[in-house]
Design goal:
Helices cover about 40% and strands about 20% of the residues. The protein is α/β, with parallel strands linked by helices.
């Protein structure tokens, strides 16, 4: 909780710092006080809205539902891209300006030139420096808003050496990271359900982050999951965002609603007369009392996998549902032929498929990966916790399993 208050305080302070800098630049550009008050108003609105938005989470206080989606989109982009970008670039621009002034310093005793009529280059640069962040916010918001309603359908055929002949052609609709809440809800959920159902898959498998961060959004998420149709069932595992409002409450409410949520649990079924075992990995470490935390380093992944693998039926074809993609390593080591995961959002902000946050943070971040005879499919996610994506589109993955000769 202390970290939360520190982050909120730093972001509000960053708003004030930007407003002061913009005011300073506009004053040196001889702008009137009516123009200079603009940055202070923008900083006050953004900082105040940020505080209301996060302090109202999980409470009955009004806040989130009063803010339109376009404004919440701008709120995220302002605090997580525009202001950090300004904080990085402003010192660089200031240093470059200082170097230019030193290089073009007047010789001692040189006569001063009268100022040119109109706005000179220096005044223009100062005005541009003050207006660039709000302009960038408008552009990014305009790009992000249409993305919130879009997702693609990605089809894959996965040859697997250990696939029983009866399961050749088995189809799976892989849905992940819906993040039901501030950016995913209403018509978007209906579109996700309709697109998934049109696939007429044998299984629908959801790999975590069903909700974003508020249990108040869980009923809508549960309704969406219950509207999904598959010949042999709909199953899901938990993700880190599901546990933000409390892991025990999320699990209890999902199971009470009849969802097939697997928390370090297995579900056995027969498909075309062949035994299939679904293994759902939990997020975080567990203890004998059933409590779970949000710590999810490599040690926690391997610890949870060791517990889960005790449930493995050697006579059944296993499929692992894991939110974190690094679960693929111990899964492949244990001979699990297919792992489905999410969490990465395809890297979210990528320059291309191999350059960006994905490879910087994860060993596996989007698409198909192989280790020996095992395969993993990592989804970009179907919804959004953050409104902007680049080279990492939201998606539903339609998998067809094939027997590898």
């Amino acid at each position: 909780m202390l970290i939360f208050w520190l982050i909120l305080g730093c972001l509000i302070l960053l708003n004030a710092l930007w407003a002061w800098h913009a005011d300073f630049s506009l004053r040196r550009a001889s702008c009137s006080w009516r123009i200079r008050v603009g940055p202070w108003l923008l900083a006050a609105v953004m900082g105040g809205a940020l505080a209301v938005f996060f302090l109202s989470r999980g409470t009955d206080l009004p806040g989130r539902e009063w803010l339109p989606r376009w404004f919440v989109t701008a709120l995220y982009l302002w605090h997580l891209i525009v202001l950090p970008g300004w904080l990085l670039l402003a010192p660089v621009a200031g240093m470059a300006g200082l170097i230019r002034r030193l290089q073009k310093g007047r010789a001692a005793g040189a006569p001063r030139q009268p100022p040119a009529a109109g706005m000179d280059r220096r005044t223009f640069a100062r005005t541009l420096a003050a207006s660039a962040p709000p302009a960038a916010l408008l552009v990014l918001t305009g790009i992000a808003l249409p993305q919130l309603t879009r997702f693609r359908l990605r089809k894959m055929e996965i040859p697997l050496a250990g696939l029983p002949p009866a399961l050749d052609g088995l189809t799976i609709a892989h849905v992940s990271d819906t993040h039901v809440g501030v950016f995913t809800g209403g018509p978007k959920l209906e579109e996700i359900a309709a697109a998934t159902n049109r696939l007429d898959a044998d299984l629908v498998l959801i790999t975590g982050d069903l909700i974003n961060d508020d249990l108040a959004d869980l009923p809508e998420a549960i309704a969406m999951v219950k509207s999904l149709k598959a010949r042999h069932g709909v199953f899901l595992c938990e993700g880190n965002h599901d546990l933000i409002p409390g892991p025990e409450a999320f699990e209890r409410k999902c199971k009470a609603a009849g969802l097939n949520l697997l928390v370090n649990e297995q579900h056995s079924l027969a498909i075309r007369g062949e035994p299939v075992q679904l293994l759902g990995l939990r997020w975080g470490l567990g203890d004998p009392a059933g409590r779970r935390g949000d710590d999810y380093g490599e040690e926690a992944i391997h610890h949870s996998m060791r517990e889960l693998l005790r449930l493995r039926d050697p006579a059944a074809f296993p499929i692992l549902l894991a939110h974190h993609p690094h679960a693929f390593d111990p899964a492949a080591g244990a001979g699990i032929p297919l792992t489905l995961a999410g969490h990465t959002h395809g890297g979210q902000l990528m320059v291309n498929k191999n350059l960006g946050f994905g490879p910087a943070l994860y060993r596996y971040w989007s698409g198909l990966y192989r280790k020996g005879e095992s395969a993993a499919v990592i989804s970009n996610g179907t919804g959004n916790w953050f409104p902007l994506r680049t080279s990492a589109p939201a998606e539903i993955i339609h998998l067809t399993l094939r027997r590898k000769a």
